Structures are given as structure tokens and as C-alpha cells.
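Subject line: Sequence and fold of a protein, written as C-alpha cells
Body of memo: The sequence and its C-alpha cells, given next.
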Amino acid sequence: MKRIALTTLLAGILIGSAACQKTDSQQVAGEDPASGTQAPAPAAAELENALSALVEEEKIPGAIAIIEQGGKRLAHVRTGYLDVESGTELPEDAIFRLYSMSKPITSVAIMILRDEGKLNLDDPVEKYLPALGDMQVYVSGPLEDMQTEPAERSITIADLLSHISGIAYHFTGDTPVHQYYRKHGVMRDTPVGRTPEDGPPAKDLGQLVERIGDAPLLYQPGTKFEYSYSTTVLGAVIEASSGQPLDVFLEEKVFEPLDMTDTGFFITDETLDRFVTGYVASEDGLDVIEPVETSDYRDTGRLLDGGGAIAGTAHDYLNFATMLAQEGKFQDRQIVSEESIQEMFAPHAEISGWSDTPISFGYGFSLGTPESEAADMQPAGTVSWSGSGNTYFFVDPDRDLVALLMTHVIVPPPFSERTQALRQTLNEAAYALAGDDG
């Protein structure tokens, strides 16, 4: 394995032999009469074997997978390494980069503010962020001679939640708008999609919002899904409407009520030994892309990106997913209203072009349909999202079923079958253990 420069990777976003540790695997099934302990259910054992094989084949560095139904643990697998080079075992409380699995968290935070009467989903975003008023929309022409037209209407909070704002990401295409983002540093400092030719990234959330306001929109607001900095902008809306920094608001309204004690934007000296090394898939197996010592998560002045810069443990994210499955309730606490959860789980946009099958999208989540299930993508009736580091989860509210996979390897398009294999393995295990093989 080798270390590679952070700027050499344009990561795919979504949809996509050394002995390894297989420890603390808990698959709930019938009791083993010989030992008096719980015997692994076949599907749980198959899940453990499949993930451990991927570690041995150097396709993933390690993984934690958890499946629960109605609060009952059906499977719990931990295998592989925190850091492959040193052979450090992956601990149960390992801290993973959530990347885009930050987005559902920030989306829930927006709905909490709506529940509190501090904003409405049809509010124009310039009510909170004046820099995003009077936007221009790309029409034609190359980067140096772009023709634009005024936006037909304002971007709304709902547009941002469903990624139909017209805002883009710098790394999801090569249109003149994407080129503008790169040239003018309309980005945060992240290893995902950066190149040496890009302009200096924004130093803070306010500066990023200003740069987005200066850039042309890719589409008219409300017309088309474009995966983007929309959720990052929602973080700025949270700050403006709550009067609190984003990290403080999330801690008070989401992390603390959900007992997410190891989730946040920063890695401290005390938690550094639990922070996973970041890897990228390659022909050789796995290459280091982000050593923990030099990670931007160590920088307390980093841009607070609620769309892709949160880190946390499997246990913490399981609490978040369980809250979603319970219509906004966690233990005896109503974190977000049932009405808001239902709105988040309703279709508001359609993702096209990522696969042969269009994908329904709600407020912060993709929505499983019979068509996505038939294409071996997302099970029907589920809400789900994932992160660039191959973290993945889904919730099936009707079955009160939660499945979660945490790992730490970015998988570019040439190796996307690894991502598909990981998700399909978890999906199949979850429904087999829930008593539904399809």
C-alpha cells in the first residue's frame, strides 16, 4: 500500500493475505445448547464472512455492520483494521468520516427549526442569507463567456433540502458552472475532488455562501435535482435562524438528545487514537488518502460543512437511524415531529443519470421503490443515504428495521462494484434476518 496526495482523487459520490480481526460479532438467533451462548443466525454469519473476506482481499480496511428490528439486535459485525499499515484492530468505538451521511443530520436539524417556528420550508433562502438573492442561471457559453439569465424565482429552504436549488458541487461534472466553481474556489478544503489547478477553497461557511451567491446556478430553482452544496448552505441557514454556530446547534438539538457522544466536526487529542485512517480504492487494493495526524478534522477552525464534514461512531449513527425509524422519537424524547419525518420521507425530487433506474428523493434521503428494488439498488419502502467513504444506512419504517454499515474507503468509479457488493450484502442480510427474503 502507498500514500497518495489528497489532490489526486476525484471520488465518485454515490450509488455505486494478512489475517483480519473478526471480533465482537453478535448475531442474535437461537441459543447454542452446547455453549449456552447465542448462535449466529445463518444470514448474520454470512454477513460477517462476506465483510471479513473483503478485508482479507484488501477491498475494505475494516467495517462495523449493525442490523436491528424493533430495538432487537439481529446482527453486529466488527472486522478489520482502524489502520491497515500498523495492523491496529478496528475498535467498537472507532470514529468514521461520515462525509455525505452528514446530510440527513443537517436536514433533520432544519426540520427541528421548522417545528420550533423559526423558519418555513417555503421561505426564500435570502431571508436568512442575503448573498443568495437575485441569482443568475447559466444558459450557454464557455467558462470565460457564460451567458446567464435571472432566476425565475428564489431558492427556497425546501429546494435546498431536496437538492433542486440549482446549486452544484465542484466535483460532480465538467460544465462551465462546475469549471467556475473550481476556478473561483467555490468549495471547502476537502480531499474529495480537489485538483492542484483549483482556486483556494473558502475559509469558512460565510465565505462559501458568498462564493455560491456569485456563481451562476446550473438550473432554474425547483426544476431539476443536482447533488450539491445545498445541504452545506442549510448549515448557514441554521446558524442565521438559530443565532448559534452550527456545531453548537447540532450538539444541543441532535447529538446530545440522541446520546451521540462521539459525533461532531472535530477530532481531539483524546479521540485521535479512535479515528480511522482514510483510504481510497486502487488497482493495488487500498491506498492512504488521509492520515489521521494531518486530517482537517484536527483543525478547530475548519469550515463547518453540514453536508459532508461530520464524523462519528457506528453506535451514534445507529441512534440517529433508530430515531428516524421511530417517527422522530428516541427513547422518551421527541427529537423532531412525526409530521416533519413524514415530509422528509415523501418524494420531492427525482435523481436521474446516476443509474438506469431513476431514484426518488425526499428531504435528505433517497427513497426505495419497487423499481429501485428490482434493480438491486435500494429496497422498496426504505429511506437511505450513504457517504463517500462507503458508509451506508437504511431505515424501513414499516418493518421498524434499521441497517448500518461503517467503513473508511473512498471508491472511485472504476471500482464501484465494491460499493454495490457492500450494500447488497447488508440489504440481503437485513431482510433475511427480519424474516423477509425479498
